[in-house]
Amino acid sequence: SGSATVTVNTPPTSAVLSGAATICLGSSTNLVVTITGGVSPYTVTIDNGVGTLNNYISGTPIPVSPGATTTYAIVGNVTDANGCSVAGSGGALVTVNPSPTSAVLSGTATICLGSITNLIVTITSGTGPFSITLDNGVGTINNYVSGTPIPVSPLATTTYNMVGNVVDANGCSVAGSGSATVTVNTGPTSA
After folding, report:
1. Residue 128 C-alpha from the chain's centroid
2. Biggest alpha carbon–alpha carbon distance for the chain
3. Which neighbouring-strand residues pair with 110?
4. What is the DSSP letter of 79?
């Protein structure tokens, strides 16, 4: 008479997706599936363009870069190396904030010494108010609203430029561009 050995594999007991985050458009973040029990590696399928991940190890970051706010979930079961499975659970809401697409300085002008003229930064997209920085003594302006006049009164002809990035209310940013040259004419002096 013969005998038979039956091997009983212990299935995974849970597979939980997490990774809720808020990002700027064009940025990425990581989802994570935490799997308890079973034998690694696993096969996991996540919706919304992620797809099936073979040879997945519990806790490994899964990079995503959605173009709009997206909720991710596990599709069906998570299967371990022995073919044992457990239903996936959890989810991850990735909120995508619009990034500013441009921030352009303008305001080229000619003034008389002692006069004032205005610079303007025109910011497209993003969420106001913004933080901007200009050189030549203007400095950083917080809570700036696109198109708001920035008065300057240089003592000599000066070219103003954006410094670094313009940052919106959600922390999303874009490199500043453009420049403005303010030409200062000196008036006649007394004879």
Report:
1. 15
2. 129
3. 183
4. E
- Write out pLDDT tens, residues 169-184: 999 999 999 999 999 9
Residue linked to tokens 């490199």: 175
Amino acid letter for position 75: V
pTM reported for the whole predicted model = 0.79
Distance CA 39, CA 55 (A): 11
Beta bridge partners of 63: 30
Question: What are the angstrom distances between the C-alpha of 38 and each of 79, 127, 159?
Answer: 9, 46, 66
Please name which of 63, 161, 158 lies closest in space to residue 106, comparing C-alpha atoms.
Answer: 161
CA distances from 34 to 31, 62, 82 (A): 10, 12, 18
Alpha-carbon span 43 to 85, nearest angstrom: 9
CB within 8 A of 9, min separation 6: which ones?
Answer: 38, 39, 80, 82, 83, 84
In tens, the pLDDT along 76-113 reads 999 999 999 999 999 999 999 999 999 999 999 999 99
Residues facing residue 137 across a β-bridge: none
